[in-house]
Design a protein that fits this description.
This protein is of the alpha/beta class. It has one domain: 3-Layer(aba) Sandwich (Rossmann fold), CATH 3.40.50.150. It contains nine helices and seven strands; from the N terminus they run H-H-H-E-H-E-H-E-H-H-E-H-E-H-E-E. The protein has a seven-stranded mixed β-sheet, with helices on both faces. Helix 8 links the parallel strand 4 and strand 5. The relative contact order is 0.13. The model has no long low-confidence stretch (mean pLDDT 95). The site of S-adenosylmethionine (SAM) has 15 residues, from loops.
Length: 218
């Protein structure tokens, strides 16, 4: 019974709530969309990112990690280019089954979070070649909310944070989620630099940092 109820809610309200939040991205519409679609980023996070994406329309938006928010990013940047990078095949399948029109590339980082100190000392190992559609662009806005990085056995965000610093356009905006965690904090300070930090927005499931990169470092 609960499952049927959830399916009805999703069908009648979840997708329309994305359309509404795209057309009118207020705190209220974004909050409703977030709850109905089980998005992890808070409404304040979604609002901060979408404000910059809309300001820079039609922008080139690159996102590390897919999720139930992916369709919103694609729609809010509808006249721009929105590309996602994901490493987890099952999660990729689950998200692309629901949201069919996303441009997602499956990639392999070949890291474990436990390697973070060694990688910081050997930054050449952080680089990797991404699909040509990603490498050929310099991106206006980058969101790093993947890969998973909760524990030492997870992939960790060392490469995604490093790559964001390499792929961003001058004056581009980088958002990194989960900066309350040690590895994200250290990698952001190292590659995105404290002087580029504009804001940090707290949240119960992680802090979001916003950097504006006036000088690319890599
Ligand atoms: C943190 S989630 C993205 C969350 C999304 N931005 C949101 O706010 O809902 C992104 C990363 O988590 C990992 N992941 C794996 N399984 C997952 C699951 N069941 N739910 C969420 N994320 C998962 C994925 O590999 C992905 O790169």
């Amino acid at each position: 019974m609960k499952e049927i109820f959830e399916k009805v809610i999703k069908y009648f309200f979840a997708l329309p709530s994305v359309e509404l939040a795209t057309l009118w991205p207020s705190y209220l519409t974004i909050s409703a969309m977030r709850i109905l679609n089980k998005i992890q980023l808070t409404a304040a996070h979604l609002k901060a990112i979408s404000t910059i994406v809309k300001e820079k329309a039609s922008c080139k938006l690159l996102i590390f990690g897919v999720g139930y928010d992916s369709i919103f990013w694609s729609k809010i940047n509808k006249d721009g280019v929105t590309v996602f990078l994901e490493n987890n095949k099952d999660w990729y399948q689950a998200v692309t089954d629901i949201s069919k029109d996303l441009t997602v590339f499956l990639i392999n980082y070949n890291t474990k979070r436990s390697d973070w100190k060694m990688l910081l000392d050997s930054p050449s190992l952080l680089d990797m070649t991404l699909p040509n559609d990603v490498e050929k662009e310099r991106w206006d806005v980058i969101l790093v909310d993947g890969p998973d990085g909760q524990n030492d056995q997870n992939t960790g965000r060392m490469k995604s944070i490093f790559l964001s610093s390499r792929l961003i356009k001058n004056s581009g905006d980088i958002f990194v989620h989960d900066c309350n965690r040690e590895v994200e904090d250290i990698y952001c300070n190292n590659f995105l630099k404290k002087e580029n930090l504009k804001t940090e927005i707290k949240g119960p499931m992680g802090y979001l940092r916003h950097y504006q990169i006036t000088n690319r470092y890599t």
